[in-house]
Design goal:
CATH class of the largest domain: Alpha Beta
Number of helices: 6
Structural class: alpha+beta
Helix content: 55-70%
Largest sheet: 3 strands, mixed
Strand order of the largest sheet: 1-2-3
Number of strands: 3
Distance between the termini: 52 Å
Shape: elongated
Order of helices and strands: HHHHEHEEH
Number of domains: 2
Amino acid sequence: MLSKASQTADGPTLAMLEEVEKAANDLVAQVRNLSLDLRPAMLDDLGLLPALLWLVQNYSGRTGIQIDMRHAGLERTLPADISTAAYRIVQEALTNVARHSQTKEVSVRVWAAMDMLFVQVQDKGKGFVLNDVPLTSSGLRGMRERVTALGAS
């Protein structure tokens, strides 16, 4: 519709329509990225390990933070709720590293053994005192809620 209007527009109107079209395209790209961040299709299509490897590569490219990712036992298919929770917890932990830790290195360890999945994200950043983190801190609260909803710790 914008491109059709652009064909008959004059100079100032054409410039404005081009700006609007660029803004709309940027917005569509942002929505696409947000939906990928929430639950990438590859989590369903390929499983947890490929989704985490993609997340780590994408994150490192965006932030410049180097990630040492190690994993074991993730070749098997995990239940969707566990895969989603693990993905989102790693994602939120990495977001917290970028926002708060003031470090350029982080390690991510994810391994499955028997009927358990273990996730560990560790950095050597500035740290914090857990009791000093406000109860409204959505990152830590969200991770805790995801784990609790699975009956895990």
